[in-house]
């Protein structure tokens, strides 16, 4: 009986999730102005069909295509998000788990050797792989590369097309 109840609860949960997704799609189709859509998106804070994954106060989405660092940055902005900013060991270990080469929101394009996050803050804690960053003026964008090591970062030429990871804050 206990198992039966558990199954019932799971079924109800599943139906609820599917219903909410369909409902959201319906409302989005009704709201044609982009501003209303943006507000609604923040309100729901969870995108059913877009594979956002939650960790602490943020949602993360790994891209399914490859783009340059700048195009990746733009893609995240269009989604009301930004390229991932790593400021905890938890986030660092989390991003390695995708086991993919991924652009993150780190660049030293402005001043070589001064690494900044896409929100303008200086990088303080870093997880560079041994010998990195080694690109000087030719490698100005940060990526997750050596994901089997905690220190997985590499600097790479920004024009190379790679997968990327967006981050969206849920609470302010
Ligand atoms: Ca550089
Ligand atoms: Ca490098």
Summarize this structure briefly.
By secondary structure, this protein is of the alpha+beta class. The protein has helices spanning 2-30, 34-44, 69-78, 89-96, and strands spanning 53-55, 58-62, 82-83, 102-107, 116-117, 141-144, 153-156, 163-169.
Account of the 3D structure:
By secondary structure, this protein is an alpha+beta fold. The chain folds into 2 domains: 1-49, no CATH class; 50-169, Mannose-Binding Protein A, Chain A (Roll), CATH 3.10.100.10. The chain is built from 4 helices and 8 strands. The chain has helices at residues 2-30, 34-44, 69-78, 89-96; strands spanning 53-55, 58-62, 82-83, 102-107, 116-117, 141-144, 153-156, 163-169. Strands 1, 2, 3, 4, 5, 6, 7 and 8 form an 8-stranded mixed sheet that branches. A hairpin with a 2-residue loop joins strand 1 (53-55) and strand 2 (58-62). It starts with a helix and ends with a strand. The model is unreliable at 31-40 (pLDDT under 50). It binds calcium ion (2 copies). This is C-type lectin domain-containing protein. Keywords: Disulfide bond, Lectin. InterPro entries: C-type_lectin-like, C-type_lectin-like/link_sf, C-type_lectin/snaclec_domain, C-type_lectin_CS, CD209-like_CTLD, CTDL_fold. GO terms for molecular function: carbohydrate binding. Pfam families: Lectin_C.
């Amino acid at each position: 009986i206990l198992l039966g109840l558990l199954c019932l609860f799971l079924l109800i949960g599943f139906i609820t999730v599917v219903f909410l997704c369909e409902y959201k799609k319906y409302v989005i189709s009704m709201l044609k102005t982009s501003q209303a859509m943006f507000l609604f998106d923040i309100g729901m804070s969870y995108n059913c069909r877009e594979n956002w994954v939650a960790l602490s106060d943020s949602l993360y989405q790994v891209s399914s295509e490859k783009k340059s660092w700048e195009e990746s940055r733009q893609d995240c902005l269009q989604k009301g998000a930004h390229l991932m900013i790593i400021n905890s060991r938890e986030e660092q270990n989390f991003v390695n788990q995708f086991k993919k080469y991924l652009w993150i929101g780190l660049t030293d394009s402005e001043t070589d050797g001064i690494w900044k996050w896409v929100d303008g803050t200086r990088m303080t804690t870093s997880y560079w792989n041994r010998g990195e960053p080694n690109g000087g003026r030719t490698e100005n964008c940060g990526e997750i590369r050596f994901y089997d090591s905690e220190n997985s970062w590499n600097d790479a030429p920004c024009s190379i097309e790679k997968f990327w990871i967006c981050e969206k804050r849920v609470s302010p």
